[in-house]
User: Fold this.
Amino acid sequence: MFKKEIINLLSKQIKLKPEKISNLIEIPQISEFGDYAFPCFVLSKKHKKSPNQIAEKLAKQIKPTKIIDKIESKAGYINFFINKNKLAQEILKINANFGKTNLGKKKKIAIDFSAPNIGKPMHIGHIRSTILGDSLMRIYEFLGYNTIGINYLGDVGLHIGKLIVAYELWSNKQALKKDPIAELLRLYIKFCGKEKTKIREGLEEEFQEDKWTTKAKEKLKLLELGNKKTHKIWNEIQKASGKGFDKVYDMLKIDFHETVGQSQFGDKGKQVIINALEKGIAKKEEDGAVYVELNKQKKYILRSNETASYITYDLGAAIERAKKYNFEKMIYITDFRQKQHFESLFATLKLMGYAFADNMIHLPFGTVKFGKEIIATRKGNIILLKQVLEKTIEKAKQEIKKRKTKGSPEKVGVGAIKYIILKNEPVKDVQFSWEQALSFEGNTGPYLQYSYARASSIIKKSKNFNKIKSKKNKLTKQEIELIKLISNFPQTVQDAGKQMNPALIATYSHELAKAFNEFYQSCRVIGDKSEGFRLRLVDAFRTTLHNALHLLGIEVMEEM
Ligand code: ARG
Assistant:
């Protein structure tokens, strides 16, 4: 309502479209610069005046209204100060849907996330795609989109060829029975130890030529040809992995609309490539490999022995998905090392005439580092995701015992891990340490959960929630800060959606909880003459934090 009014006031004075004005309006970090600010730099060229002069002139022309108290200019900005009592009234009215919109108009957004490779256990490096994807699903759903979560299991590819070779040579039956995931991991590491090639994680296929790698490729070919023995091993690997993955997804409480193996799309991919060959869009080398030309460079889309490669499957899968879901947007979330793969994928689809290629986006994220090293399964320097979760849950159990409260260790432990991942912008690397994972103070998930529980207990203790009228004298500094932050929530969610960046919500949640704790330290709630007002403010905070944490996939507790 405040922003709308400001847009209204501005559009009477300047010749910009309301949407454009809306996009330009900023929320200053420092309260001296107002609650909203409009930068006049864009107007400078047209009016042939400095932004400063324009801002000064406009600030004088625009008259304050009932809800906009004061208008000032500073350094090329027009600063708007809103009426805090009016804002307080608005904030006290919020309900459980606070921040929700139907901006998305039920349009479909498909998100390809998590997508681990079978045969390897999920380690802390896999957690990013999984947790980011889940949070984005929640954000888009909240903004009124129809979301479709797809888990595209890496059930083929060179790593499978390697595992099958290792399985045939070295597997131990008993170990396989007892702990199949551990045994598969042992086999994979052993195989990688034999290979003598440089590997670039994420693009391994293109970089390996070695006798062991050749063996792995042969197994892949056999698998594609439907060889029975190879298939049987493959099935066993699949089953064991599937169980392991499900355990992790259960712990994280993450679901998908569709879980499907990459292998399902090989035939479709090949068929698409044959069509492209017929149309002359793709070309064949003498050895049978097929390529398209992208930026005057050859990009291979089928391997020399006519086996499918990573992109072959993705071509098939993209086309099938577009048909099945008719999505408005399709987001792939993977490590940044697959950036080129997705650029090629989208460009190839476009070359082949698929218009939906323009609606596909790759969201790359940085690596999760543990100590100095990048976590890589083939080296065996991994921390399993399951271990991490179990350890944080155990720590939460001890903390809760110490405090003698009713919190849920699972919610606290899982919340801690999710928050560590989400508080980092996707592009940045995450530095993972046990110390950080097991610390529940400061900028952590448990601190947020704790702030929520504290607010809940205040409400629970009060007998006057429904009795006292929400009347109030002058607002304190801490009250104003809290009210303003609450009012920023809807915009924060929209920004997070636009930028595909849940970190905005994580940072926001932390700011909000801090403001609440400061408020609570300096303003008595129960027994104060503003009790009614303050209780409602606490409740509005509670609702807002609840919704923000929901978008991060972090569960709250009424007591902790
Ligand atoms: N399985 C791949 C990996 O572990 C990620 C797959 C991402 N999705 C896709 N459609 N290519 O690196």
In short: Residues 200-206 have pLDDT under 50 and may be disordered.
